[in-house]
Amino acid sequence: MNLPDTARQRKALADRLTDQGHLRNPAWRAAVEAVPRELFLSSGVFLPDDESGLWRPVTRESVGAEEWVEIAYSDQSLVTQLDGHLTPDRAVEPLPGFPTSSSTLPATVVGMLEALDVEDGHSVAEIGTGTGYSTALMCHRLGEDNVTTIEVDAEVAAAADAALEKAGFSTWAVTGDGLLGNPHRAPFDRLIATCAVRRIPYAWVRQTKPGGVVLATVGPGAWSYGTGLVKLTMREDGTAQGRIIGRSSFIPARAEAPVPLSGDLTARAAYVDTERRTALSPAVLEQWMPAFLAQLTAPGVQFVRACSGDGRATTYLFDTRRESFAALSEGGEEWIVRQGGPVAIWDAIEAAVTAWHNAGEPDVSAVRLTVTAKAHTYSIEGDSALRWEHRID
């Protein structure tokens, strides 16, 4: 199927992004107007079906050229792979699954590129090629020889490379583990990650020039929200410092994707060491900043809500690495919290959220981060109770 020229749609997208305040630099606007997003969706997309909770496969052949172009330039993230292998052109009916690759919301893509503060001649490493759309924008802005993009999934990488070639960019596309960076092309002036990581790999720090910038989404837990976009500046002594510049949500790096908990959750939480009441509802963990604090306080914890046969809801927090758990159930005006294992998960989270309340509930943008070869240190300035050091084993 031949698609119509999308110059009008590209300009309209650039206009919307400019009006929304995401697109400010004329060079990035020129890239948005030049790069056809539809080229990077050749296998189709999965659209969410709100009624069924399933993913509906959509291809340009199944909906026609006009609707396909409308989808390609819509203001939404477009899922392009489920469960690490399934693409829309291989599916017929709506189906369940976990997104493992996507074409990110254009506002997010452009906002991150603007935040990189690139200059002419800068070299950039991109961790997570995905569809290749953001790669193409950087190639247009900086020149294809200045962009190195790394994708762990060989099939995704091949599709992105083909799309980049079709768009006219023969850039440095590498198939491999982006958490290791790419030492053969280093050092870089900028490094940007289009996947979420639990911590900033020190390889990224080593491979970025002093004064350079690393931009990535971090969340020390295994949650899909409560994460932040951190902007770090590299220092001459091999450390990096910066802050969270806003909320951000990305598909986790493939090597760090959480393994869903299986089996009987009540059995996992059967051996209780302590039981008490708490006035802090676990519903607070559905708020972005408390969720971020919970992950800082209990890195690696998984958050699960379940209902028993009689309809009673229980919230579980599992730290499988340290074999600890907290289970919270309704108990009148308060909640009953049962904890087991060497780490009292809810005690620590409750203390952190209380300290955050007492500090005036600062936003995630108040969080600072220092990265060294041995630790990640998060802090909110002026409050010693809001400081977390994560040692790197």
Tell me what you see in this structure.
The chain has 393 residues and is an alpha+beta fold. The protein folds into two domains: 7-90 and 100-247, Vaccinia Virus protein VP39 (Rossmann fold), CATH 3.40.50.150; 261-357, Double Stranded RNA Binding Domain. The protein contains eleven helices and 19 strands. The protein has a ten-stranded mixed β-sheet with strand order 7-6-5-8-9-10-11-17-18-19, with helices on both faces. It has a five-stranded antiparallel β-sheet with strand order 12-16-15-14-13, with no helix packed on it. A hairpin with a 6-residue loop joins strand 1 (45-48) and strand 2. Helix 1 (7-19) packs antiparallel against helix 2, helix 2 crosses helix 6 (133-142) and helix 10 crosses helix 11. The relative contact order is 0.09. The model has no long low-confidence stretch (mean pLDDT 92).
